Amino acid sequence: MATAATQAPVNGEANPSSPVDLSTIPISPDGDNTDENKKPSSDRADGDQITVFHDKDNFNVKHPLMHKWTLWFTKPSSGKGDNWNDLLKEVITFNSVEEFWGVYNNIAPVSELAQKSDYHLFKEGVRPEWEDQQNKHGGKWSFSFKDKRIPIDELWLHVMLAAIGETLEEEGDGEVMGVVVNVRKGFYRIGVWTRTIGKSIPGGGDGDVAGGKGRSMDKGRDVLLNIGRKFKEVLKLTSADDVEFSGHTDSAHSGSTRAKAKFKV
């Protein structure tokens, strides 16, 4: 995986401008670690760099992410006309690999959530809603798993790691807003939300291509298709499985999250 960011620590913090390969971070703090300096706390000299994987209580080094991320949770509706804003809860915002694992290891896994529950992991300042200013011109890639015996917890973890590690898009694309997992009767659905649907955002200035500004239609389409292909790889799907992209506006007009697909990969 690609980027969280770190350099030699300064005052216990790392420089967030330089990327570090996330594959050097174990799948869980209890897993194998490639850090050759890992050693029992009793053998450490004062001043050693200690990550959360060495000592979860006394670590002095963090690996900052390129962006801050916020975890949201949608609790199941009571079926009595609940307001969406009352069901959607902001859980926590974090900005380092260590903080991510601290959150992940202390929330319920997807496989244990009730039906009609959702997790949303979005960049800080972006609400997981179609109407959000940064989402309203965008769309999402999604795939539904009809067999609920799949390893949904592992798949969702890898999608989150791909998002916070910035590996779902190329540097400067500025498209990925967040990732979502939905728990429904008979299926799980995982999605990646993007800022655009492959064309420039109205009012975008020339020269700034992040989020589609100044891009040609062909370039915008290529950027989205690349995200779709990477998303499909993370989900470990076969060539026979189609990951579909639809626009939020189309979904809103159709009254469904399953609007007609604009693209498939």
Automatic annotation (TrEMBL):
GO MF, one annotated term: RNA 7-methylguanosine cap binding
Keyword RNA-binding part of the UniProt annotation: yes
Polar residues biased stretches: 1-21
Name of a matching Pfam family: IF4E
Chain intervals with Basic and acidic residues compositional bias: 35-49
Region (Disordered): 1-49, 246-265
InterPro entries reported for this sequence: TIF_eIF4e-like (IPR023398), TIF_eIF_4E (IPR001040), TIF_eIF_4E_CS (IPR019770)
GO cellular component: eukaryotic translation initiation factor 4F complex
Superkingdom, natural source: Eukaryota
Keyword annotations from UniProtKB, A to Z: Initiation factor, Protein biosynthesis, RNA-binding, Translation regulation
Gene Ontology biological process terms, A to Z: regulation of translation
Complex formation: eIF4F is a multi-subunit complex, the composition of which varies with external and internal environmental conditions. It is composed of at least eIF4A, eIF4E and eIF4G. eIF4E is also known to interact with other partners.
Function according to Swiss-Prot or TrEMBL: Recognizes and binds the 7-methylguanosine-containing mRNA cap during an early step in the initiation of protein synthesis and facilitates ribosome binding by inducing the unwinding of the mRNAs secondary structures.
PANTHER family the UniProt entry points to: EUKARYOTIC TRANSLATION INITIATION FACTOR 4E RELATED, EUKARYOTIC TRANSLATION INITIATION FACTOR 4E1-RELATED
Family: Belongs to the eukaryotic initiation factor 4E family.
Protein name, entry field: Uncharacterized protein
Organism per entry: Oidiodendron maius (strain Zn)
